[in-house]
Task: structure prediction
Amino acid sequence: MRQHVNPLSSFFQVERDLPAPSELFVNPELPLHLDIGCARGFFLLAMAEAHPERNHLGLEIRHPLVRAAEAQQQREERSNVRFIFGNANVSLQRWLESIHQLRLELVTIQYPDPWFKKRHHKRRMVQPELLRWVAAAMPADGKLFLQSDVLEVITQMLEAVEEAGCFSELDGGSWLAENPLAVKTERERYVLDQGLPVYRRLFGCAVPGESLHNPLAEQQNAG
Result:
């Protein structure tokens, strides 16, 4: 299987209806952790075990990886973790807008495809608009965790965070020496085993969804 897919191809530009939380989880009222670009789901399965007080949803653009992750979830019989197929920049907005109770407690984006060639930079997943959608579904204490082993990639991610204008630093503006989630991805373990650097940042939601959807709050912010 190819390691990368072109998110700008016509197949991946079709907006897909994503299942509602009530269709995915036994207890859809739990706070939600969304892992965008979840790959085979090993990280999210470990998070589901470590944090049963949350639901955990993985979104992945590579369909075979979604099928593999769902199969593992069924083998482990975990009711608080699911995996779905889709292009985050195409299909996630409408789904996030449907979360009226602002239960999106944590979003993680880790080791996204780097797309090194300059002409391919537009294929990179983390865009300001995506981050604005995420913030609109978050409560005031929602968190965004980003990490990569490619400095150029994390730099572009941080530029997108700044342009989105919806998040504030929870890490003092510096790289985190340790993973605050205490659960490592496969890629993270591999990179650390090689003695290579990992770049991590943690943000809080500075403009929670209730403010984004509140005209009075918007007027006050503008003033």
Observations:
- The domain at 10-222 is CATH 3.40.50.150 (Rossmann fold).
- The beta strands are 32-36, 55-60, 81-85, 104-110, 143-148, 167-169, 199-205.
- The two ends are 53 Å apart (CA to CA).
- Residues 214-223 have pLDDT under 50 and may be disordered.
